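Project channel, design review

CF: Before we commit to the Kwoniella bestiolae CBS 10118 constructs, I'd like one complete example in the thread so the newer folks can see what an input/output pair looks like. Taking Nucleoside diphosphate kinase.
RD: sounds good, go ahead.
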Amino acid sequence: MSTSEQTYIMVKPDGVQRGLVGEIIARFEKRGFKLAALKLASPSKEHLEKHYSDLSDKPFFPKLIKYMLSGPVVCMVWEGLDAVKTGRVMLGATNPLASAPGTIRGDYALQVGMNVCHGSDSVENGQKEIALWFPEGVAQYKLDAQTWIYEA
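CF: and here is what came back for Nucleoside diphosphate kinase:
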């Protein structure tokens, strides 16, 4: 059974610099997800190292951190049925060459190193990422369009 949940989606520096923020937001809105939080951030090296701590033993980790420090990112929390799983499908495979056309990475990215966006890979990681990027919390409101998106 599907469940309502929250996911963390981040537009990485290349997506911000290329002017893709509006397009990515539009895709999630058109899909029917509720925007619960949004901000532009210039995170510190320490913040990024905490976010990507699961990759700290990988040889590409220093390059990833350097890239993520190269410009601002857009941090978002999206909410809805199966938001984590659906968000990952919408983003496409981490390697853009394996991403289907119609996905965000399939349409806008060419390399793993600059793949436009990040999305939570599990509900648990989503909760951790949301807490890390939005310690102030997220907005709580009823999306009026829900009656037109979800069956009663």
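RD: helpful, thanks. The chain is about 40% helix and 20% strand.
CF: Residues 6-148 form a domain with the Alpha-Beta Plaits fold (CATH 3.30.70.141).
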